[in-house]
């Protein structure tokens, strides 16, 4: 067990939008410590979203994240030799990190040419409540609903 709760590191807002959530997203997007490259990819994706839809890119990004944020998830728990999938509510920080990680991972799996194109397409799809990241959220909620009978095993 831990002796102390790990302290949260302060995260500075990004330079263009002044938003901490953007910085957290870019930190998840970053590979091999290349933060400036990750910021370029994100800003290009937001510009492409604004160009394709004619709406504010950052607002669409936030709407997309909101649409793919899960409310419950299933956790495995052994009870008397059997393993049950128990639906549990998710704390806010984990909700956001799951949504961001799903958006990034499903954007990486798309077939467009550049990462900015892939990310912009996935953001647009998620804001319209479609796409792979939104499907993942729906599947997670469906699993929780199917296993609702075991919710009394929650700790």
What does this structure look like?
This protein has 155 residues and is mostly helical. The protein has one domain: Ribosomal Protein S7 (Orthogonal Bundle), CATH 1.10.455.10. Helices cover 55% and strands 10% of the residues. The chain is built from six helices and two strands; from the N terminus they run αααββααα. Strand 1 and strand 2 form a beta hairpin. Helix 2 (35-53) packs across helix 3 (57-67). The longest helix is centred in the N-terminal third of the chain and has 19 residues, at 35-53. It is globular, with a radius of gyration of 18 Å. 25% of the residues are buried. The mean pLDDT is 91.
List keywords for this structure.
155 residues, mainly alpha, 6 helices, 2 strands, 55% helix, globular
């Amino acid at each position: 067990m831990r002796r102390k709760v790990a302290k949260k590191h302060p995260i500075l807002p990004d330079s263009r939008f002044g938003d901490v959530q953007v910085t957290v997203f870019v930190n998840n997007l970053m590979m091999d410590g290349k933060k400036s490259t990750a910021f370029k990819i994100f800003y290009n994706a937001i510009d492409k979203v604004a160009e394709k839809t004619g709406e504010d890119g950052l607002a669409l990004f936030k709407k997309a994240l909101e649409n793919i944020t899960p409310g419950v998830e299933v956790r495995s728990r052994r009870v008397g030799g059997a393993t049950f999938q128990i639906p549990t509510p998710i704390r806010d920080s984990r909700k956001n990190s799951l949504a961001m990680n799903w958006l990034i991972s499903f954007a990486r799996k798309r077939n467009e040419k550049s990462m900015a194109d892939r990310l912009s397409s996935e953001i647009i799809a998620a804001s319209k409540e479609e796409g792979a990241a939104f499907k993942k959220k729906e599947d997670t909620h469906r699993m929780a609903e199917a296993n609702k009978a075991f919710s009394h095993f929650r700790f």
